[in-house]
Write a structure and sequence with these properties.
mainly alpha; Growth Hormone, Chain: A; 3 strands; 5% strand; MFS antiporter QDR2; transmembrane helix; transport
């Protein structure tokens, strides 16, 4: 009689549940037995980094990486008209460089994030930041519009991928129970680039002209590179397991991991007897088209469509804010930079609130599920909680506030109401748009934890490509329809997109179950001997 372990599924929860599936082969026929080991087996933590200081180390490292992406567009806004004059070109051509940045911001993570699912998070982080630093040096020294155009694409190719990489790292070290809170804090700190980017850009413009912006970004990139090299350990489950094994590739090893080993004795080196006994995921394969499979999943489409529309509406508003305040309100570059503080603070607050509310919402549905299981006398499993409802039910309120504030912003700007009124509206819009994005991104990581990088890359692709189209059309739409008409139109699109969420809340679980059934049917022939 031969006993073969086929899969081992471990899900961590407050109830410490664990299920192991064994395939027992006797002669030509095989049967599958599910054995509940809830009472006899201690749960294995998803990561050895359980303490608050260790979690904060991951949050700070990933947030700093994300700042490189989030600061690179808004720090550019105060310089738009100056760059148009310097390169003797139109504002539309300068806006085109922002559009191309958004396009590459969406496309580059399809390569980098998918690669990180195969070779680990840490090497890809380092390669992306080095690429970003080189692009900024070229931008600071360039004196041609087409150099600006091309290197902005290269800048996005490197820096923009830090956002999905953050999703991959957070997905590796968290479970559904605490993922919302950790993701919210990391996203909120990472979006500080949106908060202070325009203000920093305005200050640099007043002192060193537009070149100072790119020299600053180069220095910031170098600082982040050093921090991540020293402090970010590998989290990919194949290379590091749950953090208890030292990765074999040298680039996946961090000084932080060696310090942690000196203090605690973990992670184990290949020479340690415990090394082979530690859990690790199966060997990944490089599949650069994994994102394409994710992108055609019905629930992914239904999540991404409204999220991309809300993000595009938000960025279109931020773009016309700069040009309208300069042309209609005659504000200086520095003053315009100060007005973006409202949207930046709203972004930061929205992320932190999203983390808290997502954690509260998930726990609320856990309590409801436990009460149901006790009433029906059936065993409770955390995986039975409807994750679609737990993550998305509060998005309707965020969307409603965004829609109303967008309409108010447009019409107050068009009628030359004192500028602080539309600026306050950007605070509300930014907070709600960030809430919507945080909830959507966290849901994608929940649905596809083994492909977290590729899942977040899909999110990046959709929102950035749609945003690029919006940025390309924003000036013409604003001129033809006025800020009020444009804002009302985009708010209407956001409202219609909520129908996707209504359908997803009703049928999301059924879609997920059908996908799992298809995957199981596809794997069964290869499992038989």
């Amino acid at each position: 009689m031969e006993v073969k372990t086929e899969t081992s599924e471990k899900s961590l929860s407050s109830d410490c549940e664990e299920t192991v599936q064994l395939t027992c082969q006797v002669g030509p026929e095989s049967t599958v037995e599910r054995i509940d080991t809830n009472a006899s087996v201690d749960p294995v933590p998803e990561t050895i980094y359980q303490s608050k200081p260790e979690l904060w180390n991951f949050i700070i490292c990933t947030a700093l990486g994300q700042v490189l992406s989030t600061i690179s567009i808004p720090i550019y806004f105060p310089a738009l008209t100056v760059l148009a004059d310097y390169f003797d070109t139109s504002l539309d051509m300068i806006n085109l460089t922002a559009t191309m940045y958004s396009i590459f911001q969406g496309l580059s993570p399809l390569f980098w994030a998918t690669l990180s699912d195969a070779i680990g998070r840490r090497p890809v982080y380092l390669m992306c930041i080095i690429c970003y630093i080189g692009a900024n040096v070229g931008l600071a020294l360039g004196r041609s519009y087409w150099v600006l155009f091309g290197l902005r694409c290269l800048q996005a190719f490197g820096g923009a991928s830090t956002v999905p990489l953050m999703g991959g790292v957070i997905g590796d070290i968290t479970s559904r129970k605490n993922r919302g809170g950790v993701m919210g804090i990391a996203t909120g700190l990472g979006l500080m680039g949106n908060c202070f980017g325009p203000l920093i850009g305005g200050g640099l413009m007043s002192q060193w002209n537009w070149e100072g912006i790119f020299w600053f970004l180069m220095g910031l990139g170098a600082f982040v590179l050093v921090v991540i090299f020293l402090c970010l350990p590998e989290t990919h489950h194949y290379f590091a397991g749950n953090g208890s094994i030292m990765p074999q590739p040298w680039l996946n090893r961090s000084p932080y991991a060696y310090v942690h080993r000196a203090v605690t004795g973990i992670p184990f080196l290949p020479t340690d007897p415990e090394y082979e006994q530690e859990w690790r995921a199966s060997k990944p394969k490089i599949n650069l088209f994994q994102w394409l499979w994710l992108l055609v999943q019905p629930d992914v489409i239904l999540v991404l469509a409204p999220m991309a529309l809300h993000y595009t509406t938000w960025y279109m508003v931020l773009t016309i804010q700069s040009t309208r305040l300069a042309s209609d309100y005659k504000l200086s570059t520095t003053q315009i930079g100060y007005t973006y503080l409202a949207s930046g603070v709203g972004t930061f607050v929205g992320s932190l609130v999203a983390g808290r509310l997502m954690q509260w919402s998930f726990q609320r549905y856990v309590w409801k599920r436990k009460a149901y299981c006790e009433e029906k006398h059936v065993p409770y499993r955390q995986s039975d909680v409807n994750i679609y409802i737990a993550r998305l039910d509060l998005c309707f309120w965020a969307s409603l506030i965004l829609i109303v504030s967008t309409i108010i912003f447009g019409w107050t700007l068009e009628n030359l109401v004192p500028f602080y009124c539309p600026v306050v509206m950007t605070f509300l819009m930014s907070g709600c748009a960030t809430f919507f994005m945080s909830a959507s991104t966290t849901l994608l990581v929940d649905i596809f934890p083994d492909n977290a990088g590729a899942a977040v890359a899909c999110s990046n692709l959709c929102r950035c490509l749609l945003c690029a189209a919006g940025l390309a059309a924003v000036d013409k739409m604003s001129t033809a329809m006025g800020p009020g008409g444009m804002s009302t139109l985009m708010a209407g699109f956001c409202g219609l997109s909520l129908l996707c969420l209504v359908y997803l809340l009703r049928y999301g679980e059924q879609i997920a179950k059908k996908r799992k059934a298809k995957e199981k049917a596809r794997r069964e022939p290869s499992a038989k001997c």
